[in-house]
Amino acid sequence: LDMKVLTLVACLSFALMACVAPSTDAAFCLDPVTPGPGEFNAKFMLGAWHQVWTNRLTYDWVERNTVCDSAQYGLNPNGTISVNNTARNGSPNGSVNTILGWAAASRPDKYPAELTVSLQGVFLPAPLWWLFTSDNSTGRYEWAIGSDPICATLFVVSRTWPVPSAYLPAIDKALARHDWHRSSLMEIKWQGCG
After folding, report:
1. What confidence tens digit (pLDDT) does each residue in 88-118 have?
2. Residues whose CB falls within 8 Å of the CB of residue 94, separated by 6 or more in sequence, listed in order
3. Of 30, 104, 140, 189, whose CA is between 20 and 30 Å from 45?
4. What does the pLDDT look like over 10-55, one tens digit per residue?
5. Shortest CA distance to 66 belongs to which of 46, 45, 95, 37?
6. How far apart are the first and last CA of the chain?
7. How many CB atoms lie within 10 A of CB 145?
8. Contact 88, 95 (CB under 8 A)
C-alpha cells in the first residue's frame, strides 16, 4: 500500500479510538494492575525523559530519522500536563524538531493513566496510555511504557540514558505482557546527544 493510504488509515483508526475508547468501560490495552487505575499518579511523570525504544510502526510513522528523542512534562496552572517533545533530525548535530502540547486524563477517576494528548499542528488529539511504570520509590517514575488503546504505538521512556541495567528485567517483563520484546524494537539513538 501507498504510505499516504497507510497514514490515512492510521489517522482514521486513531480518530475512531478517540471517539470509542472514552465511552466504553473496556480498558483494552490498559493494564489493570501496573500502574493500575488507582495507583498511577501523573505528578511522578513530570520532568525530563529520554525515549529509548519504540516499535517499527511508531518509528516509521512518527519518528523516522530522528535521534535524541526526548520529552519534558510539566504541570500547567489548569491541572493539565504540558508536553514538550524534541528530537534531532538524522544526527546529534541535526536540526531540532520540537512539538508542544498538553495532556489530560480522559477518565481520571477510573483510569488516571489513560491520557489524551493534544499537540500543535496535529488535527486530532491522540490517546497515550501509560501501561507500566517503575515504582515511585525515588519520588518519581524512573521508566515508563506508553501506548494507545490497541497497542499499535509504543513509547519506552527512561529518566536516564543508558537505561540502568537494574531496570531492564522489569522493563522486559512489562513489555512481554503485550508481546513486545526489546530485541525486536527500534532503539532510539542517544550516542553523542549530550
Report:
1. 999 999 999 999 999 999 888 888 888 999 9
2. 67, 88
3. 189
4. 444 444 444 433 333 334 565 544 444 457 899 999 999 999 999 9
5. 95
6. 39
7. 24
8. yes
